Amino acid sequence: MNRTAIAVLTCSLAGMAAMAVPTTAQDTEGDLRGEIEALKKGQQQIRRDLAEIKKLLQARPAAAPARAGVDVSNVVFNLRDNPIQGESTAKLTLVEFTDYQ
Description:
- The chain has one helix spanning 3-59.
- By secondary structure, the chain is mainly α.
- The mean pLDDT is 74.
- It has one domain.
């Protein structure tokens, strides 16, 4: 191909692309508008859910505050008339183990 033929072919392809862009742009714009509307609806649903969760949390009674610094080394459990084995004054050690895997 010579340079003139390449220039004509390039101009023809550019012209065809320019004619196709408005249709593609309009379709893309419509698609984007649809996606934006779907996102807005999803966001509204999330807001409603959060408002409902907030109401439920506010309706719950407040949890007892943590008692930092309280000495729990000598707590006495009252077992009343429950059956026990061994001495009623035996010491008990509680160990909490947590696995963070």
